[in-house]
Amino acid sequence: MYVVRRSPAVLIVLTLFAANGHAAQPVPAVYEDQDLTVRAGIPAIGLQAVHVGDAISLVLQIEFDATRVRVESLDEDFFERAFASQKGIRLYAPPAVTEEAGNDNQVVIRAVWRFQILDCPDEQTICAGDKLYTLPVISVAYQLIDESGQALNNKSARFRPWPGMVPVTASIATSRNQAGEFLAHFPGGAYPAALAVADWRTESRFALLAGILLLAIGFQSAAFGQRLLGQSLHLAGPATRWEAALRTLHNDSLSDDEWADRLRRAVTWYCLDELGDNPFAWLQDTAVRASTSADFREFFFDVLHQESIAEEQRAAYLGRFARIRDRTSREWSAAEDSA
Question: Among 38, 25, 83, 42, which residue's Cα sits nearest to residue 166?
């Protein structure tokens, strides 16, 4: 069905449009022929980070001569047909369609669809980490008409909206002044609670003695991180949540993905509980507490972007984490002594 909705001319808007030309448009031209010009894109790309569930807008603008061209309806069904191949993209609200009529029978139809990304791209069932969605090629049908409105020819404009792809980051966004509210909404630091583990105080004295002897005689450099980790976690009191998560990393049955996720929990909770800083606020705010070293921030971002950590890399990650904690403890002790 082909529909062209007429509305009174908005002279001020048209004057600005004519004066500024194409530079005033929020999205670039993606198709043009002798009959019409199509501008289509997602203006938010490049201006803000897109996360799973964010509501973003697709803008489609068509400019044509209403006495010669009739364009199909840019309604909700149009969006569903265009994005049928992208199962992860869902329409969020009915489209907002406006029409502006100018001189020489020129008409500008502008449609804005608000949509969300809620699932994996393409046919993937699991997609941890950052994601990349390819925008589909969209076809807009139109007719060439005569003076009486009779159709002379059926045609279509095919194009891919700018910028062609939508990158989605796996991190969770927090605004500048809401870092304190993050834990109120996500008590677990946006990660599931760590699995329950037995208290080390209940383990046998023989195992404890063997561990002390091993630490005394030393391992090779590849095992340094795990030795230091075991030494620092031999506590008299109950384990904190980051310590409990760290202890589960000794489970050799964990897959590479599970091991990386447990390490992310431990690092996040350590920063929240021991350093008093919210690491996710660093994604949008460069201002961090003086107590949080650049080494720790670099380590956090490294762990955040690791979808999986292979077994041969685990000792190195544990060693870095242990050294950072040890250095932080020494710095705090020195500061207390000088005070």
Answer: 42
Question: What is the tens place of the pLDDT at every residue in 305-338?
Answer: 888 899 999 999 999 999 888 887 777 677 666 6
Q: Which domains does the chain have, with CATH numbers?
A: 11-168 (2.60.40), 179-338 (no CATH)
Q: Which helix H or strand E contains 145, and what residues bound it?
A: strand 138-145
Non-local (6+) Cβ contacts of 75 within 8 A are 95, 97
Beta bridge partners of 62: 38, 109
SS3 163: coil
Determine which helix (DSSP H) or strand (DSSP E) holds 336, and give its type and residue range.
helix 311-338
Q: Alpha carbon 109 to chain centroid distance?
A: 31
Query: Could you give the CA distance from residue 305 to residue 48 in angstroms, rounded to a whole number?
Result: 19
Q: Would you call 155 helix, strand, or coil by DSSP?
A: strand
Distance CA 20, CA 18 (A): 6
* Greatest mean pLDDT among 70-84, 126-140, 266-280: 70-84
Give bridge partners of residue 110 from the DSSP assignment: 61, 98
Contacts of the segment 193-199: beta carbons below 8 A, 24+ positions apart: 193/241, 194/241, 194/244, 194/245, 194/248, 194/262, 194/265, 195/248, 196/244, 197/239, 197/244, 197/247, 197/248, 199/238, 199/239
Q: How far is CA 208 from CA 216, 224, 234, in A?
A: 12, 18, 9
**Which is nearest to 283 in space by CA: 178, 196, 162?**
178
Q: Is the pTM of this model over 0.85?
A: no
pLDDT score, position 64: 94
Measured CA to CA, the distance from residue 227 to residue 323 in angstroms comes to: 11
C-alpha to C-alpha distance for 120 and 129, rounded to whole angstroms: 11
